């Protein structure tokens, strides 16, 4: 897309912040501390050049998943970012 790595990181940070804020009023099932930990882990993956690669299967995480869950460490097939709703 012609973005520099610094621009990519800045954009990703904004996407993550927006995703967290958008979920803040809806999803009380996740501890904010856990959410922050996942974001920090995602930022670390960016620094290491592993961002967008599934932690489980090693395939690329789809753009749709990253847009909805910028901090997701797995692809939609491995799907740990979307646990089934509590019964
Ligand atoms: Zn996967």
Explain what the structure shows.
- The protein has 87 residues and is mainly alpha-helical.
- The protein has one domain.
- Helices cover 48% and strands 0% of the residues.
- The chain contains three helices and no strands.
- It has helices spanning 5-24, 32-47, 63-68.
- Helix 1 runs antiparallel to helix 2.
- The N and C termini lie far apart (42 Å).
- The model has no long low-confidence stretch (mean pLDDT 79).
- It binds zinc ion.
- Zinc ion binds next to loops.
User: How does the helix and strand content classify structurally?
Assistant: mainly alpha
Shape: globular
Which ligands are bound?
zinc ion
The average pLDDT value, as a whole number, equals 79
**How can the largest sheet be summarized?**
none
Rg on CA atoms, Å: 13 Å
Strand tally, please? 0
Binned, the helix content reads: 40-55%
Number of helices: 3
Q: What is the number of domains?
A: 1
Strand content: under 5%
Oligomer: single chain
Q: Which tags fit this structure?
A:
87 residues, binds zinc ion, mainly alpha, globular
Write a brief caption for the model.
The protein has 87 residues and is mostly helical.
Secondary structure topology:
Elements: H1 5-24, H2 32-47, H3 63-68
Helix pairs in contact: 1-2
This protein binds zinc ion (ZN).
């Amino acid at each position: 897309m012609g973005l520099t790595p610094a621009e990519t990181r800045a954009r990703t940070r904004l996407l993550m912040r927006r995703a967290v804020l958008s979920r803040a009023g809806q999803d009380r099932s996740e501890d904010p501390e856990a959410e922050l930990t996942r974001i920090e882990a995602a930022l670390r993956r960016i620094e290491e050049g592993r961002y967008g690669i599934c932690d489980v299967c090693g395939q690329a995480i789809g753009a749709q998943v990253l847009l909805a869950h910028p901090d997701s460490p797995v692809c939609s097939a491995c799907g740990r970012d979307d646990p089934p709703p509590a019964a």
